[in-house]
Design goal:
By secondary structure, this protein is mainly α. It has helices at residues 2-10, 45-56, 64-71, 73-100, 107-150, 156-171, 176-203, 228-241, 245-253, 261-287, 301-335, 346-369, 373-389, 391-405, 411-449, and strands at 23-27, 31-34. The chain contains 15 helices and two strands. Strands 1-2 form a two-stranded antiparallel ribbon. The radius of gyration is 22 Å and the shape is globular. GO terms for molecular function: L-amino acid transmembrane transporter activity.
């Protein structure tokens, strides 16, 4: 109802009859929108909230219990809240900056404003790689789900290929407005599946990976003492679970009313934070060191089949969304300023499908080459999550506020300068340390498998 009222009162597209092909509106990013092309400005605030939630709640939450296992419950919750707090501020700054600079479409525009052409190229490339790696993680997660539901009915490499084909087909839907209903379905299914596992581990005698005989008591720890690489990997997993920030630029660009961005963000971050803490704490409390990543396999074979059965639609939606976003970014950059950007011409469709297919193919290669779910998630969080979510957003604040306060230096301005410097330092530390820890873990796993894991047919749902 709220979405319908918003559409009626605030739509940028007047509800009057026009001749075919007549202009509907002029957008700072997409140019002239007409009835002969896709409507890129048609996502309401509730639809925006669920798309935000789907970019946040997904693969990351399924690794949260393993992150708590590495750090311990109390440090895990504290670190999660700190990282989520920084992420929430970053996400708020995206909407605030977008209102002042409506021509901004992606994180590369921020790079251009801060560092010129070089900054635009670096951050634009990082954004595409980040989304593509997340897409690859999603394909890997889908293959795990298909293996679990089917009892490994066929080669895992085949399941990854199936995931790539379906995600590419669905990700080729042109606008986020048309994808938003899929996000509702995907989010509902994924939350249901995780709640099933969360409840099941609490009522069962022991987790699936625990010894089958003897008295078993959970070996969870309040405070753990991990190695540097394991701690860094856990923190990177938490960053990955909060790393929707660069995607929020594109999401805000397709809102009907960008002024409602903050209410969408508050709803998203509130639900996400509570959900992460409850799921991570409860599953780790009952499973201890025998928690599995992804966590959906922690409650035994029957519950694993049921939970993955519910989760698969959510995994598909998350994967298609992160395939859609980099493809849309490249598509907009290629056709920016051209009539083909918002018109259903042959060039429009050839360019669009070429972008989605290219992202899908690259993500398929990544998923097949690094087929260890937890390691891939932490690597993506460290290598791309922090330099896209933390440092550039601090730069956005400096861009808009440095000259306003440098002469008078009011207390609030000084506090924000200190805060932004902290965000830059913390982000740099997490990026370097997390990347190191993730690479160490990947090397160790490859030594165990002797390099045979890539493009493997082995069942990956029992790890």
């Amino acid at each position: 109802m709220a979405d319908q009222q918003e559409k009626k009162e605030n739509s940028l597209i007047p509800t009057v009859t026009r001749a075919e092909g007549q202009s509907l509106s002029e957008d700072a990013v997409f140019g002239e929108l007409t009835e002969n092309g896709p409507n890129y400005r048609n996502v309401g605030w509730l639809g925006t909230s669920v798309i935000m939630l789907k970019t946040q709640i997904g693969l990351g939450v399924m690794s949260m219990p393993s992150a708590f296992d590495a750090l311990g419950i109390v440090p895990g919750i504290i670190c999660l809240c700190v990282i989520t707090g920084i992420s929430t501020w970053s996400n708020y700054m995206v909407g605030d900056f977008k209102l002042r600079h409506p021509e901004v479409y992606g994180i590369d525009d921020i790079g251009g404003l801060l560092f010129g052409k070089t900054g635009r190229i670096v951050l634009g490339t990082a954004f595409v790689l980040w989304c593509t790696f997340v897409t690859g993680s999603g394909m890997l997660g889908i293959s795990i789900g298909l293996n679990a539901v089917s009892s490994h009915a066929t080669c895992t490499a085949v399941y990854i290929a199936v995931a790539a084909i379906i995600a590419c087909a669905l990700g080729s839907i042109q606008t986020l407005g048309r994808i938003s209903w899929l996000a509702w379905v995907g989010l509902t299914c994924l939350i249901t599946s995780i709640l099933i596992v969360t409840i099941s581990v609490g009522v069962q005698d022991r987790p699936a990976a625990a010894p089958r005989t003897g008295i078993w008591v959970s070996d969870y720890t309040i405070v753990n003492n991990p190695s540097f690489s394991k701690a860094a990997t856990a923190l990177s997993t938490m960053v990955f679970a909060n790393a929707g920030t660069p995607a929020f630029f594109s999401i805000a660009s397709e809102m009907r009313e960008p002024r409602h961005y903050t209410r969408s963000l508050i709803l998203c971050q509130s639900i996400m934070t509570v959900f992460y803490i409850i799921v991570g704490t409860v599953i780790y409390y009952y499973c201890g060191s025998y928690v599995i990543s992804p966590a959906l396999g922690s409650a035994g074979p029957t519950i694993k089949k049921v939970s993955y059965g519910f989760a698969l639609p959510g995994l598909f939606v998350g994967t298609l969304l992160f395939l859609h976003l980099p493809a849309k970014y490249v598509f907009v950059r290629i056709l920016y300023g051209s009539k083909h950007l918002s018109a259903n011409t042959l060039k429009h469709w050839i360019t669009w499908l070429s972008c989605t297919i290219s992202v899908a193919l690259t993500a398929y290669i990544i998923a097949s080459a690094i087929p260890v779910f937890g390691n891939l998630v932490s690597l993506v969080g460290a290598l791309f999550g922090t330099p896209l979510c933390f440092q550039p957003v601090a730069g956005m604040w400096f861009y808009d506020n440095w000259n306003q306060g440098i002469s008078k230096r009011p207390p609030r301005w000084i506090v924000m300068v200190v805060w932004c410097c902290f965000v830059v330092v913390a982000g740099t530390f997490l990026m370097i340390g997390g990347t190191y820890g993730s690479i160490v873990s990947i090397i160790e796993d490859y030594k165990i498998s002797q390099g045979s894991a890539a493009w493997s047919c082995a069942d990956n749902s029992n790890s």
